[in-house]
Amino acid sequence: MSAYMSGFGNEFESEALPGALPRGQNSPQRCPFGLYAEQLSGSAFTAPQGSNRRSWLYRIRPSVLHARNFRAAELPLWETAPCRTTTAHPIDQMRWGPTPLPDGAVTFIEGVRIMTTAGDADARIGMAAGVYVATRSMADTYFYNADGEILIAPEQGALIFDTEFGRIDAGPGEICVLPRGVKFRVSLKDGPARGYLCENYGAPFVLPSRGVIGANGLANARDFLTPVAAFEDSQRPSVMMVKWGGRFYVCDTPSSPLDVVAWHGNYAPYKYDLSLFCPVGALLFDHPDPSIFCVLTSPSAQAGVGDVDFVIFPPRWQVAEHTFRPPWFHMNVMSEFMGLIFGAYDAKPSGFVPGGVSLHNAMLPHGPDAAAFEIAIHAELAPAKLENTLAFMFESRLSQHPTDFALTHESRQADYAACWDGLPDRFERQRP
Ligand SMILES: [Fe+2]
User: Fold this and answer.
1) What is the pTM of this model?
2) CATH tag, 275-413
3) What's the 368 CA to ligand 1 centre distance in angstroms?
């Protein structure tokens, strides 16, 4: 059973037991129900008011009883920036088919396969992007990421995220964001699962500025959902796994760390249904930049430039007159990691399939394939709706370096760049 509060970055408050939340102060001498008060900081104490994030958690045991006496653990496919591959590779545009589900039992955490990294996790700049595959739920195992927040976009199979703040369900077409330091466990809701994830080392995701679009449209704050408090009072010995500085550690814990009975604050996990995104686009002619489809951005120190932008290409009407309607050919200072959650993508009607990935790195040209171009220049330009399509992009101002996993991936399409082979020289030389 999941229940949510609506809003983005609000000062939320929630209690699973009436009266568990202290009134009028954060850290009373004795908390109600004998709970411990603990602050989780998502920004420096001194961060400006607009970007200051923290929550107060009222828990059965303080986190020090759940995370100490660590031993090293290995998750070799969850790579962290800076990560330069040992596999020689060209700089080419790249594309992959879906990552197959494993035969054995693999949890969400064990099933993370990072495909690109950018920046430097220790410097709190950049990101990692990849896919996850999962065939079993985490049982008595919990995880938190000290290196960054995680954005998860399921493509196949719904997931249940039991977090310190409460429960989030997310299936294909939705996203879930788990802030840095938040403890959680992932269960499968309806069988094997696969999807995409972005680990964001930099500033937490926020809604982008809308500029002249105004106060409404794109992703609206009220459609983001944060769970209400729910706790586990379990005495079962469990394992806590932590990602810290690009390495993994485990420790034993005598009980569930999801023992937060009440909490308040503006630093909490959330989900968002991508079908609620309100696209804005060209109403007469031409094709604006894809930034109009930005759902969330992790701002860098450079004004208006994201360390990571999460952008979607949802179902929408196309009405522009005398216009080439699919994405145009271009070269970009930003690097683009794309995935497809369902349907087909208009610039790549074949070869780019749900579960697959493409990577168009900084300053590498790309655009519609030959078939899409041919269709687009001859298309009847009546209003038309793009239905059954949901692609997305993790776009970064930093170059994305493919990992060994990506370069040696069994579904890597070595002939991807051939999709532009059929573009003829169309220059009308003889025309006066
Ligand atoms: Fe692009």
Assistant:
1) 0.97
2) 2.60.120.10
3) 10
